[in-house]
Amino acid sequence: MRKPLVAGNWKMHGTSETVRTYLEKFSVPPGLTEEREFLICPPFTALAAWKEHGRSKPYVMLGGQDAHWEEKGAYTGEVSPGMLRDAGCAYCIVGHSERRAMFHETDEMVNRKMNALLGAGLTPVVCVGETLAQREAGETESVLRTQVEGGILTSKGRPDLSRIVMAYEPVWAIGTGRTATARQADEACGFIRRLLREALGEAAAASVRILYGGSVKGANIDELMAQPEVDGVLVGGASLDPDEFSRIAAYGTGR
């Protein structure tokens, strides 16, 4: 059985002081820390503060928001997988929709980053998803197939590929006021798993956790996590509020 993962992406928000006050307020009910995994991906500048103050909430893992595929070199402003590991990270997001749109990341770049993270012992959270124009044109599955094949399955010979986490991001439902239904989330996650099954086999595909990330809130988390193909969530803005993220983390408990 795949252990659910509740992940928060702070994007370009937060300071060292934010980390301290956040950890004072964020909590999950006793017992859930054995059943689920929790992850926060703060900005690079807040990683050290989280590593220090995070000892108070050891069940919350730490992740990076991006990484370069080289371990070191003349890449001003970049951070390597080894540096993230040294900062206490266990996970790292790659291929986020904002990186693809604003910084023109290609599937090839996403693949190189994924391989570098796996090689460094970190777990990549590989994001895929379609825009509103692509969905309205009926291209959702073709876009997902292209991104999964180009960003992930070109490395299908890796024996550790089943360690990755995937996140389906409907770009059209992020910060637009539009919301994907739980059924739409489940259908997209199920399609991604079928692609993995075709290329990697049943066992490997069954090991990969597929998250949903598109305007996740306390108000819709219970319905989302009731879907059979949704193994967790990648939360954006709602993860900045410790009370709201606590509610999301405690989905299904009535909290």
Keywords:
255 residues; alpha/beta; eight-stranded parallel sheet; 12 helices
Averaged pLDDT = 96
- What structural class results from the helix and strand content? alpha/beta
Regions with little confidence, pLDDT below 50 for 5+ residues: none
Alpha-carbon Rg, integer: 17 Å
Number of helices: 12
> What is the beta-strand fraction?
5-15%
The strand order across the widest sheet is 7-6-5-4-3-2-1-8
Distance between the termini: 24 Å
* SSE series: EHHEHEHEHHEHHEHHEHEH
What's the helical proportion of residues?
A: 25-40%
Largest sheet properties: 8 strands, parallel
Number of strands: 8
Shape: globular
Give a description of the structure.
- It is globular and about 45 Å long.
- The chain has 255 residues and is α/β, with parallel strands linked by helices.
- It has an eight-stranded parallel sheet.
- The protein has helices spanning 16-25, 32-35, 47-53, 81-86, 97-102, 107-119, 132-136, 140-151, 182-200, 202-207, 221-225, 242-249; strands spanning 5-9, 37-41, 60-64, 91-94, 123-128, 165-168, 209-212, 232-235.
- It is built from twelve helices and eight strands.
- Strand 2, helix 3 (47-53) and strand 3 form a beta-alpha-beta unit.
- Helices cover 40% and strands 15% of the residues.
